[in-house]
Amino acid sequence: MMEPRDLVGYAPGQPQGSWPNGAFLALNIALNVEEGSERSPLEGDSANEGLSEVPRTLSPGVRDLATESVYEYGSRVGALRLLRLFDRIGVEITVFAAAQALERNAPVAEAIALSPHEVCAHGYRWTEAWTMDGEQEREAIARAVASIEASVGKRPVGWYSRWMRSERTRRLLVEEGGFIYDSDAYNDDTPYYVKVGSADHLVVPYSLTYNDAQYSYGHLASPSDFTDLTVRAASYMLAEDDGVPRLLSIGLHPRLSGQPGRASAVEETVDRILGLGNVWIATRRQIAEFWLREHPPK
After folding, report:
1. Which residues, including other chains, have CB under 8 Å from residue 123's CB and lie 6 or more apart?
2. How far is CA 51 from CA 25, 162, 163, 216, in A?
3. What class, spelled out in words, does domain 20-48+59-294 have in CATH?
4. What is the C-alpha to C-alpha distance for residues 103 and 109, in angstroms, rounded to an integer?
5. Which residues contact 47 (CB under 8 A, 6 or more apart)?
6. How far is CA 165 from the centre of its chain?
7. How many whole angstroms separate alpha carbon 90 and alpha carbon 85?
8. CA torsion 92→115→186→196, rounded to 10°?
9. Cα 35–chain centre separation
10. C-alpha to C-alpha distance for 286 and 171, rounded to whole angstroms
């Protein structure tokens, strides 16, 4: 049976309260470390990856060295630049890590291991769950967990699929037993629970709107556009002033925001949002643990 949709959510009974220290907005920054795990004929895939500075896909079987080089910038330069930035300004982030990307980049894995940042599993490779059967997906989840823990010494307690989960993903995450949340949804500004069998499973929603992938899609012309969009969102959410603890997720990619001109916008964005007041900047694990404790399932 197909999974039903929920088009109502919390309305009209939205949760009330605040985040820690009386904040009414939780800000999470998610750094997607994927470079080295993307599609390429070199990996046996039928086509190259398309989400890059120039979104394109060449003919089947043709290796796109230009796109691979863009991804290599994120791996060689961008990831460490952004990690240094967050260390310098004292901000803890969530790293959406594809396990294979960490396996192939020891300096990035070591930087994450030595940091306070959370690691959330982003699959073993950067692949779509719906292309697998159930056993393949179960094995991919287990392999990702074991690999990430070996690379950075931290077991992931969150999961974020590439693009979107399959209809069985949440059941497999609950069966695995070590996950306290997933971020496979873009449908709310507030964490919520879903029933998975008899279990109440927490979803900490993510966003493709406040996301530097919009550079690739041509929706953001400049770093100033990124800052303007995200700061406007934070300002508006705080101004709603209705007692609802909301979440603003900002998604970054080393190959995109790791470029210096865009990295400067990331720093400005964080500074301006925190300057609004009543903002708690936190990892997704911290957000999930707070929600589980203060807003348990009913």
Report:
1. 37, 98, 99, 129, 140, 144, 161, 162
2. 30, 12, 12, 7
3. alpha beta
4. 8
5. 39, 41, 57, 58, 60, 61, 62
6. 13
7. 8
8. -120
9. 14
10. 23
Alpha-carbon span 5 to 19, nearest angstrom:
28
Query: Are residues 279 and 273 in contact, defined by beta-carbon separation less than 8 angstroms?
Result: yes
| Rounded Cα gap, residues 204 and 27, in angstroms | 12
User: Which residue, 264, 286, 289, is CA-closest to 30?
Assistant: 286
Contact 189, 206 (CB under 8 A): no
Tokens of 42: 């070199």
User: What is the phi-psi region of residue 17: left when phi exceeds 0, alpha when psi lies from -120 to 50, beta otherwise?
Assistant: left
Per DSSP, 117 falls in state: -
pLDDT in tens, the chain (298 residues): 788 999 999 988 899 999 999 999 999 999 999 999 988 888 888 878 877 787 777 777 788 888 899 999 999 999 999 999 999 999 999 999 999 999 999 999 999 999 999 999 999 998 888 888 889 999 999 999 999 999 999 999 999 998 789 889 999 999 999 999 999 999 999 999 999 999 999 999 999 999 999 998 878 889 999 999 999 999 999 999 899 999 999 999 999 999 999 999 999 999 999 999 999 999 999 999 999 999 999 8
Hey, what are 253's tokens? 């990619």
Q: Are strands 181-182 and 158-159 parallel, antiparallel or unpaired?
A: parallel
Q: Which residues contact 210 (CB under 8 A, 6 or more apart)?
A: 229, 230, 233, 248, 249, 250, 251
Amino acid occupying residue 186: Y
